Amino acid sequence: MTRYIGTGEMADLLRREGAEPILRRLVAGLRSDFRRWPDFDLAPRLANHSAGGVIELMPIADARSYSFKFVNGHPGNTRLGKQTVVAFGVLADMATGYPLLVSEMTVLTALRTAATSALAASVLARPGSRSMALIGTGAQAEFQALAFKTVIGIDEIRLFDVDPAAVAKARANLDGCGLRLVCAGSVAEAVAGADIVTTATADKARATILTPDLVEPGQHLNAIGGDCPGKTELHADILRRTRTVVEYEPQTRIEGEIQQMPADYPVTELWRVLRGEASGRVAADDITLFDSVGFALEDFSALHCLRQIAGAGPDLDLIPDMSDPKDLFGSVFSRGAAFERAA
Amino acid sequence: MTRYIGTGEMADLLRREGAEPILRRLVAGLRSDFRRWPDFDLAPRLANHSAGGVIELMPIADARSYSFKFVNGHPGNTRLGKQTVVAFGVLADMATGYPLLVSEMTVLTALRTAATSALAASVLARPGSRSMALIGTGAQAEFQALAFKTVIGIDEIRLFDVDPAAVAKARANLDGCGLRLVCAGSVAEAVAGADIVTTATADKARATILTPDLVEPGQHLNAIGGDCPGKTELHADILRRTRTVVEYEPQTRIEGEIQQMPADYPVTELWRVLRGEASGRVAADDITLFDSVGFALEDFSALHCLRQIAGAGPDLDLIPDMSDPKDLFGSVFSRGAAFERAA
């Protein structure tokens, strides 16, 4: 049977385990999987576009496991009272090809994105970082705040969004979590003196959320909102000053902030920094950038982690129960009875 | 919510509706979808290989709907008492990107493969065809027999398989369906005088199930067993004599019988014959060949047909229920309660 985890069980599981413990487990799994990057069979994501949006499949496999995520992106959905992004994923066994787990991944993607951001910051941000500006307080915001608190030790979050209601929402959701929450009046106010700057805006265009004059030596930039062709958040002049780390270079060249830069713009893949094969931050006043677009390995890792945390539970009957593998027909129709209606 | 159809409901549904009525509906849907071929956004299938087999994703979309199938192929599974091929599929709405249906597709694939074979034969076999040789009586056999009975009017099936138990299984399953069943002692005996020859063997190598001396003028060959690189059923000299029709040329060049032929070997895509833009059979003594490997459009069509037949039923909670699309965190954690455990 194939284990099923829907949005209801996912919410129960998060409430039971707590967001921060799960984020810590996700970071541990991600670190371990990123460090064995060469074990993976990487495939490009497959996209089908329509006027209103895109549907993508993101597969990946190692010798033992296979996963894929189904994810859409439909900016107009909010006008219909629907979500822009909905995702679900599947984990399968490479030895048999059988599906092991079908899970919702809308919430899980937010968790794994935040965990990946914090993992990258653990090797890129200045040691002892305590304050983070959070520009864009939409669906990702609270997950980012909690991941940086629990993994990096951030104790102050400066919130800014062009939508005051979104700031109020994030502030209310984070109230009581142990973070000092500052509502900034501008991007500049949020960023000034922050150790880390996270941009998580949803602008569907070339936007300039962050300009070069705002960025300070030593800051770490965690840019997660520029994640598809034509969608960026940082002024190109910032990229000329940063040491830039990406997940999977061929994908980020198309989808990330660096789509603004020439093809020879230097980047380092995160797994190489995590393995100690490349340097992340070299000097205290380096400006580091994690140009994150989201990668299939993160979903693979998150699905494995979830499967372990969730344990036994509801199953789907996606695999026919057959005593004789050649007798698919007989597994459906008992002999003699198949044609009473059809004949 | 997303409608779910597992193997249990699929079997109930087939028993309730009858195999033949469902095959007829599938053929009607396939004909209509193949005839609007230019409406579809075709993508290559995405494969991840391991030592034991392959896992593939097969996506396709038109302006309104999207579908993909997950399907594995693990020849060693039978030794573990498991099936070689297991499949499930998803139908989604292109306007919102939301998943509409998750369904088992192991049985549905057998049905759509048989329906596609019969649809192709309806424009390729001689009018008035009555007898069919069925070489290879494994998991596909009964579905093929019933599709050709109900769509083409075949009344005699000559069964042959190197495994006598497989022949006995197919014969027992088809007993009472209204077909005259002949157990042939050899491929030659099965093929001699047959109007249609279906090859559905599972050899995982270049095999020569059918040799040129056996094939008679006017016969229609329905070759469904040669369906991946390195796996063929027909002697190359047969292909030099046939008018050959395929589903999607770029895929069949790699996976079909015609992988044995040079790149300029002439083929016609089925949709063009169904639209009347190309000819299938021209003369009564033409030898026609449908070199079938299975294509994403067939799954798309079958999932739509299934969704219509099945109506309302069990749902999966794959889409988070959120009043505020920016408040993913709040949809999981009620305010204030999120950190009792985590803090």
Automatic annotation (TrEMBL), chains A, B:
Coiled coil: none
Keyword Lyase appears in the UniProt entry: yes
Gene3D superfamilies assigned to the protein according to its UniProt record, in alphabetical order: NAD(P)-binding Rossmann-like Domain, ornithine cyclodeaminase, domain 1
Enzyme class: lyase
Name the UniProt record assigns to this protein: Ornithine cyclodeaminase
Gene Ontology molecular function terms on file: ornithine cyclodeaminase activity
InterPro entries associated with the record: NAD(P)-bd_dom_sf, ODC_Mu_crystall, ODC_N
Species of the source: Methylorubrum thiocyanatum
Entry's EC annotation: 4.3.1.12
A Pfam short name: OCD_Mu_crystall
Family note: Belongs to the ornithine cyclodeaminase/mu-crystallin family.
Keyword field: Lyase
